Amino acid sequence: MVVIEASSLEKRFGEFIALKEMSFNVKGDIICVLGPNGSGKTTLLSIVAGLRRPSKGSLRVDGIKPYDERDKAFTDFSFMFERPRFPLSIRVRDVVDVLSDCKFKDLFNELGLKRLSNRKLYELSMGEAQLVGLYVSLCKMARLVILDEPFAHLDVKRASILMDLISAISSKTSVVFTTHSPEEAELLSDSLVVLEDGRLKWSGSVRELFQRGGYEVIVSPKRRNVVEEWLRDAGAKRLYCFGGYCFVYGVEEDMLLNLVKQGLIIGFRAMGVRGYYVGFEA
Amino acid sequence: MSGSRLSLERAIRWYIAGGLFDFFSIGLAFLVIIALWNALSQGSDELRVQWMWIVLDSLLWPLYALQAAMHVVRDERTTVFEINLTGSTRVVFLGRLLAFVISQLVLGVPVLALFLSQGCRVPLSVILLKVLVFSSVVSLSILLLSRRSAFFLLVSFLILLPFSVPVIVNASISTTAPSGLRQLDPLTALVAVLFAPIFMYYKSSVLPFSYDMGLLYSSFISVSLILVAYFLFAEIEYNV
Predict the structure, then answer these.
(1) ipTM over the 0.90 cut-off
(2) Which residues pair with A215 in a beta bridge?
(3) Which residues of A touch B3 (CB under 8 A)?
(4) Is there a domain that residue B240 lies in?
(5) A80-119, pLDDT tens digit by residue?
(6) Which parts of A23-69 fold into alpha helices (H)?
(7) Whole-angstrom Cα distance, residue B158 to residue B61?
(8) Do A82 and A183 fall within a single domain?
(9) Is residue A85 domain-shared with residue A109, that is, in the same domain?
(10) Residue B78 lies in a domain
(11) Which residue of A has its CA nearest to B9?
């Protein structure tokens, strides 16, 4: 379990404000920072990792300011950032050799790195380099593993393997990761920090999120207008349709089940974080 | 649960495994030394050793140092990867620096042995200063986190300055001291000892201070620069 606490946190790069004054307190075995591209996820993560310091305010991870106690942070935390490209002629097997006391014995095979053993790092594709970065980060079995867009360049199979891995290690080590996919965020994490344009949109536990009572209705954009009308007629209190989704409060589960049976909608589920993402929730 | 930190020894292994020893460069350097040695066979042994040292001091060694330095100087993203790998900025910095020093020994020790066997009189302290000065320049270039900027810094301080010292020294003596007193001003003298210690060993008579004092000043400056770089490297903000 890790506790991340931000207090009036702000990060500027010259005139550009990457993180606008934000305060939050989240805890969990797996914490996700969710937001669209350019929302400040990586900047926030680099402060959590101790690689950057805030321009204003503070951020504490389990009580310590990682950017002030870098020695401790770099020993206790491990991190992997997106778009890994290593212009190094070292071979993958040399990485394994240097990390010969890896605390996660099967990781090499589980990530499918065996076939890459003889490849040099600069020869690897983005996805392959990402796997090597993940291997290094997970091997340390640090107190906190920080992963920036860990699923971004992976195929579906590898992404699923990684999802299982993260879930499995979270009993021993805490994980903070970023994603722009609400599904990945909801499936994996205990708590969320949702960012947009460098501002905090929402933070809290996933359990809280699902207790609000609304529904996300999955619908083909072709039938969206019909469904929207139907939901309004059925007494929806709040309704917003966008893309392949309708976000709705005030309709009964049985009514939605009927719509599925009639083939009008593809499915529905408890309202998650997507509502914040599309602007339905404030 | 706590994480782990890679030992310095393993970090050095990491930098060596990545191709620190470029056998083409090492082989070529030895070939050039042997060719020069034979080409200078007409003069006296003392003159031959002196010329060899000057060529080494101003060109061959700096070139060799440049290619080794470019191996340990890495961009920001790779540096972040290595900090994660080792668990410490200090281990990354020292690993790179010591790997560079080791690379210099691979060329330096055999050459030194060859010269000593031929009656070379350049003291070991001068050679060590050269390695120390190179290390301080490499320390500064590590801070840049950009291979392109580092290349420019390294070429300037490892090659252009040492190569310019003989020209600057000769020009300074002929313009500033027309009669009798043929000495450099203290600042020029210090820069000359710092960047071309072997050349200045043979030209020590133009120094306004003793050569040993010059070595001491240069060592102090180099060690100070390494320490400053060491502490700054631990404080840099990393862009990821």
Answers:
(1) no
(2) A248, A270
(3) 75-78, 140-143
(4) no
(5) 998 777 888 899 998 888 888 887 778 888 888 889 999 9
(6) 41-48
(7) 9
(8) yes
(9) yes
(10) yes
(11) A98
